[in-house]
Amino acid sequence: MGVRVSDLTRTYHRGKGWRPRGAEVTALAGLSLEVPTGEVHGLLGPNGAGKTTLCKVLSTILLPSSGSAAVLGHDVVAEAALVRPLLGIVFGGERGLYWKLSGRQNLRYWAALYKLPDDVARRRADELLERLGLTAKADDLVETYSRGMKQRLHLARGLIGDPKVVLFDEPTTGMDPVAAHDFRGLIGELRDEGRTILITTHDMAEAEEVCDRVTLIDKGRVLATETPRGLARMSARHRWVEADEAEVDVRHLPGVVEVARRDGVLRVRTDGDASARAVLDFLLDNGVRSVRAAPPTLEEVYLEIIGSRGMGV
């Protein structure tokens, strides 16, 4: 098993300084999760759901209050020294890079922390700089990098130790669409290499495209774990109808909840099977020939299950 988490809890007290005060906060509340070796697994949830806390426990940065977690069979508390070399961690953001060093120097430094031999460190750094499109800027100071370039360097840093398990926390933040597309290709390559990948993301399209399974987390608890398609099947409250190049107005039909158009496709959300059939019949009766029942997107399932807590903490 790549990652196994059992009844994991993490609590802390709000406050500042070395003597925190205030109410106890539960970041993880008996969370259990299994990610098989070689799987790309997405963690989805609103702000404050516990996603980053889980990643920090798995990476031995935080200790759990109770429960257990293991990476490739090694307990993250009792065998932390064995877990760390197995992990690549990409938390992103502005921290974790040395701005007064070049991109190449950053990678060589992190390779040294993994105790890689010099020749291996040089080769790995060059390979990753090329793989992530940073070769031309490899010897420039990181302080001159754009936000997207820094994020790509974060990815390279997370892979420099040739990890078996990679934790990505919001990996495409700050990337332009081309770089984000390339990142998704990179995830496929890492899966093909047999690595286990855990991704926290708010990008539903990204999760739907790259993840074998996803777990919805809220208030430190698992709400559901399924394939993206499996989650769509679990979403039984609404039914969806799509039609290509349809100019017909269906908003007046009973049971129609929402109507949207994107790239020439009419997408109609209805309140059940009977309403969906009525919309299909209406479209066909009005000369629309490219009509189909469609599953909900992962974003729609997420909003249905999580509700309006996306901006809450």
TrEMBL record:
Membrane topology: Peripheral membrane protein
SMART domains documented for this protein: AAA
GO CC annotations on file: plasma membrane
Keywords: Antibiotic resistance, ATP-binding, Nucleotide-binding, Transport
One annotated GO biological process: response to antibiotic
GO MF annotation list: ATP binding; ATP hydrolysis activity
Domain of life of the source: Bacteria
Cellular localisation: Cell membrane
Family: Belongs to the ABC transporter superfamily.
Record-given protein name: Daunorubicin resistance protein DrrA family ABC transporter ATP-binding protein
Organism: Saccharothrix coeruleofusca
